[in-house]
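Letters spell out the chain; backbone shape is given numerically. Both lines appear below:
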Amino acid sequence: MGRVINTDGPGKTRNQHMRTMAEILRHLSKKPTIDDEAKDMVAQLVYCLRGVYETVEHSAQVWENRDYWMKAEEFRQNWRWAFQLLGDVEHLVREDEWNNLPSIMAALFQHVGSIKVAKFTRSADTWAGAYEKLRAEKAS
């Protein structure tokens, strides 16, 4: 029996979330108004940022388990922007402060702008219903 190799590690998952955010930002930049689909897209950004944060923590824990404390802290520091923007985007959605969206989009674009999107691979199903799902979390 051969070795089992997990190809879905935290790095791959993090890259998938980053790619999704890059595509969503490009779609959002073409929207003239904040409609229901735009709200779903922004809510999906919250879920992507949560996913990025979780993978960063997982990777940092692996470094710490190997006693690479400095490496783990440096890694967390390099990705701290994701946690900070997560709070900003989530606050925007929960408090309906849509006038802050352009500045948050600009801040996010600084981190995902280098991702080349030659072809959109994420469908609208990716973010469909994300706004209502996020709003329901607040009620529970």
Summary: Helices lie at 10-29, 36-65, 69-78, 80-94, 101-112, 130-139.
